[in-house]
Amino acid sequence: MVDMDEHSTPYTYTPLTKGEIRLLALSPGDEHDQLQGSFKVVSLERPPPYRAISYAWGDAVLSRKVIVDERQLNITLSLEGALRRLRSKNDEVILWADAVCINQSDLNEKASQVMMMFSIFAKSQSVAVWLGPMTPDDADAFWIMQHFDSMLRELSDDDIEGPQETALAFLDRAHTSPGNCRAPRCRCCGCGQQSSYNGLESIRIGMEAVAQLMSRPYFSRLWIVQELVAGTRLLRTNIGQRIKVFHVPMDMTTRLYCGSHHIALASLIDVIGCYKRLPAFTLRTPWNPAADRVVQLNQLVLTFQSGDAHDVHLLETMFAVKDMACADPRDRVYALRAMTGIDKIASLNPAYNISTTVVWEHLAIYLLTTSGATHFLSPAVVLALAGVSRENSLGGIRHSLPTWAPDFECLSHHSDFKHLAYVFIPPGSAGGFEPFDAMYNTTSNGILQVCGRIIDRIISVLPGSSLAAPEGHMEMSSVEQWIASFLIPWSERADWTMPTQMN
């Protein structure tokens, strides 16, 4: 046991050179021993085997510590739990964790390492997903995942034809053979809250526990999209039936850890696929919204890994993950850059020494001026989004943001509706449904110069009809609001006139 006062000198980072990363060589120890290790500076081009940790930071208070090279490095409670769980009793373990392997107080190093983060996870030997300490319900969640895994191995290709058939086969076995199954116990720890197996009731309890597991903060964290896309390997159809069943894009090396429990992340995705396809009346458990986030996460990983990434654009991906959390709003761009084709755009490279407002300006200019930056027929969608009311968490308007730049931190359901309107109904004019055609040049002081064209002038507007709307039809006010959402000029909704220069 190491004396806590013996290594009280704070750790001082040594600067990295281009292409280098730090790896934490975690020394072996028992459960309650002080965490100790050393840093190994290596080239990312030829790194030794290591595991990358994907986790939620949780409480940002640095209340715990790890002794690195005989110096004290403060860490969060969440990271301490992950390191203790992954530490070996007998052997040194090589790990990468952003909070310690990046000098978080050096903004230049942080930006440089964030640019490399996709490659850091891609070149790792495996990814360890840390969900946090376990609760009593977790044993049932891991039991049901293990139980479903066993059934998948027992089924042959002739027994199933697709996801729906697999879910029903699982349900049939649960219902018809309760006496052949032992009491539900997690294989990791031997724990479980059920004294005996009771068919559908046991399955229901297990599925409810899985739903609770998916409600953990980890699954609402934005950075995990990149970490799982980069760190997991796409399963091919010739290596087993799993890909035929639920099209799981994750291999078995990416593992979930929750206290003493552990299982392949693919097993969680399999159970969610089964859960979603079971008839609602069988389990008497409503579909948990938290599961939708995991389903969407799975779909994003599959899309990026299956070769369809060239059809995925930054703005559309930002809408897909708008409800996921990140501590720094600038990371809404930086966490997605390597997967959405903007990693070569210098103005959008990670830079934590510039304001969020500047990042949003750069992003808006990129979307407005780059051909193919979005899948819309017109860049006018960016200006339309800028016209949507932008309020921060305190309810105040963000006055520092130019009126032509959307607040990408606060993409709401209202702005999502606007976004969809431009997908299905391209912005048009009296000249037809031609794309909005304009050139954009930027000047200083946050002013965007717009060069457009005038098609015609409106001479008069017909008065509204005095006839009552037929029963059963949509109220006219609702129709008008819907049409206005994509036809009324964005400048008018922002209470503007039509100046030559818009600020």
From TrEMBL:
Originating species: Cryoendolithus antarcticus
Where is coiled-coil annotated? Answer: none
Q: What is this protein called?
A: Heterokaryon incompatibility domain-containing protein
Q: What sequence ranges are listed for the domain Heterokaryon incompatibility? A: 50-227
The record's listing under Pfam families reads:
HET
Name the domain of life: Eukaryota
